[in-house]
Hints:
This protein is α/β, with parallel strands linked by helices. The protein has helices at 32-37, 60-75, 93-108, 120-128; strands at 40-46, 49-58, 80-91, 112-116.
Amino acid sequence: xxxxxxxxxxxxxxxxxxxxxxxxxxxxxxxxxxxxxxxxxxxxxxxxxxxxxxxxxxxxxxxxxxxxxxxxxxxxxxxxxxxxxxxxxxxxxxxxxxxxxxxxxxxxxxxxxxxxxxxxxxxxxxxxxxxxxxxx
Length: 136
């Protein structure tokens, strides 16, 4: 007998799957009106990366609807979200606060959030709320 004949079998590799990846469902055609009410002008989906373009004023009135739409994206499989603010004319504190809740939801599933195209006034609102690093 040889020494290698009695060697213990290697242990199976541990598989770490905290959050299974799901394919993101495209929004139902009837959601366009809800998206517009939330200030969302465009949604581009590429696997688990989503780019959301916002437009107009994002005030307290739009905040709840925007939060619900972004939460739905995360629940449907979005893991990396880019929010484009280049067409936003005004970002209220309540509107900016939506991004904090979205960031928490994404961090819980090992995701990320980035904010792009913020005008100086919107960037100042984000900085005031401690979210300036999202807009860098």
